[in-house]
Amino acid sequence: MAKNKKSIILDRRAKVAKLYLEGYNQYQIGDMLNITQSCVSKDMVKNREQWKSSASSDIKELTLNELAKIDNLEQTYWKAWEKSCEDYQEKSIKAIKKGKKKIKGDNDNKPTSIEQTTKDVKANGNPAYLTGIQNCIDKRCKILGIDAPQKIDVSGTQTINNVTVTPEEVKEINKGLEEEF
Question: How far is CA 43 from the centre of its chain?
């Protein structure tokens, strides 16, 4: 196919797509572009194929980007968790002023000595980082669709303290409670 003819077809398909997305039907589009409805239909088949392909690759790319962000965040949580498990030293400095009574007009507030203490602290790890890691894992599983499907009861029954009751029984219970009060 000549490059010029291919270019003309691609331009026509773009016009067909634009008019279709504006809400025109195939007959109206054909009249506007001086082509048959059959030609519009074939162009729309090609347009839909292109849209599906594009959407599919866009979704794949977005999924991969989100998974990469989650992986990076999880690595950050792991590093923070490991750091929070390391023992550390707490240092404190205390200024001490001894012996000298304050005389009126004496602006000497300097300490006479400084006391520095160091205390070894055994770290236990910050559980908030583990929660962050678990959230990353949960989000990744959700994106990948590997979570187990959740069972939803649509029968109308409810389970209260391991006792299953029907909607009618719930109404009777509520009615009895209303009468008591």
Answer: 38
Mean pLDDT of the chain: 84
Model pTM above 0.85 = no
Q: Residue ranges per domain, the chain?
A: 3-101+109-144, 151-181
| Spatial separation of the C-alpha atoms in residues 3 and 8, rounded to whole Å | 9
